[in-house]
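To close the chapter, one final illustration. This time we ask the reader to focus less on the individual chains and more on the assembly as a whole: which components sit near each other, and how the overall shape emerges from the parts.
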Amino acid sequence: MDSNNTQSFCSATELHNRFIRGEQSAQEIVSFYLSRIKKYDGQIDAFLSTFEERAQKKAEELDKKRKENKPLGRLAGVVIAVKDNINVQGEMTTCGSHILEGYRSPFNATAIRLIEEEDGIVIGKTNLDEFAMGSSTEHSAFKTTKNPWNLKCTPGGSSGGSAAAVAGRLCPTALGSDTGGSVRQPGALCGIAAFKPSYGRISRYGLVAYGSSLDQIGPMATDVEDIALLMQVLGKQCEKDSTSVQKGEDTFLENLKKPIKGLKIGIPWEFLQGLHAESRENFDKAINTLQELGATVQEVDLSILKYSLPTYYIIATAEASTNLARFDGIKYGRRSPKATTLDEVYDLSRQEGFGAEVKRRILLGTFVLSSGYQDAYYRKAQKVRTLIMQKYNEAFAGCDLIATPVTPNPTFELGSIKDPLQMYLEDIYTIGPNLAGLPAISVPSGFTKDNKPLGLQLIGPQLADSLVCQAAYAFQETSNHHRLIPQAFSS
Amino acid sequence: MAELKKETVHYLADLARIAVVEGEEEALLADLKKILAYIDLLEEVDTSNVSPCCYVTQSLTKTPLRKDEVEPSLERSVFLKITPQNTAGMLRVPTVMKQQ
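The assembled structure is written out below.
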């Protein structure tokens, strides 16, 4: 196990405190992370673009603000990387795809506006599987991100860039997006905390849509306290996102450090067969830890989750086929130079611009929505989704939270999974909360014998986001897993 | 359940407006067949008398309506910067309607 000097790599919360107290300037903080990115990102390949000028300018403004005793936002001093499917005004947004060549965002996502209103500094855009479709970040059109714990292995996906950037301490926090596990799975594989809020809790305005009924932006950080801080800032109703829920409770920070004695945790043991042996051992240990914290454990029946993957792959691809219809070479992005007719603009721009996985999912989605098949596939999947939601509701009638591992396996070697279906199976534990709109967090729970991180997943009922963070924090504080830094990036 | 053929791949590609080049169809067909075979697992589930889930937060929120007021939209100059081709302040595309 690697143990390291933890002083240089403090949490975002601590960075904010240091800045407010005048112990560090914003310019020092930004320089520190920019130099780490320069030094190490050649190995990790987490970033697609860095905002040196923009970040330094914001840092100068912030230092001036503090000097003039002006009020400072809750994220003053905090540096954040953003997955490249979230629009940051004036900067390139690629979604990891060739089809958005030349597209510079003309607007800010609500999440970015909220971060900047609270004086957070966006430091760059991170790599992802193209249009967030993947579980390994190997489907990016530009580069393959490596796992800082083992550079031959995947950081997970699709928010692999964000997870690797935080794990490698290239930035203290990042935003990802989660449609079927794309924040939690890379979080677990990289040994960091990663949260998918309840559906509708963070505005999707400015997040490039993949599966609109499933997508949520998710904060990622080394410390659950930072997740809570980001949720406090980002968990606001947004009039530009009509699926944004009326404000839930704003008690992320207030409740974060409260004990979890008496908390009832449900475990779907039957659904956890087929877990990698070390993962199972680690999960059992994590459950014991929760019990030592005073939680009680009981079995819940979620055998219906056997059908969650096929349900997801029908609904997500159907929605994706519609959402990605806008990338047509007409108004923005790449237009095929070979196109001479209008039809060719569509057909060729899309054929040249999209990668194989995206094409696969668009065609599958088109199929399940097509005449003659819509009832058998799409409508059927929607009905199974109703059943999945019902089963979760029944489970939550008897417990406060549900616990599972995040992934069936720890990280795997890049290039080792070529079969798309086998890759889809990596999402088996994370998909349920997206289908049911539930809050779910991945929190570091230890390592395998060969030093690969593992994660515990805690899931709450709809809008119990604060409780999920509270339980994750309590669990985090029982060990130092979250403070360990990959050896190669520890100085 | 569904029988997928090469023609289906071309039909879907047509609907999705994505050209399929030679050499791509075999792989696409094989992958789609495999995935569809797996998805057929849903046939096991009894969904008679179950209504489809259309909106996951149906019980939590009403669809909000905004005031019927004109608000500023994207400025033309900003929009033109991101277009692949433009001319005289307009987005340029190949001929839509053929001349008589």
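The first strand of chain A starts at residue 47 and ends at 50. Confidence is low (pLDDT under 50) at residues 1-7 of chain A. With these observations in hand, you are ready for the problems at the end of the chapter.
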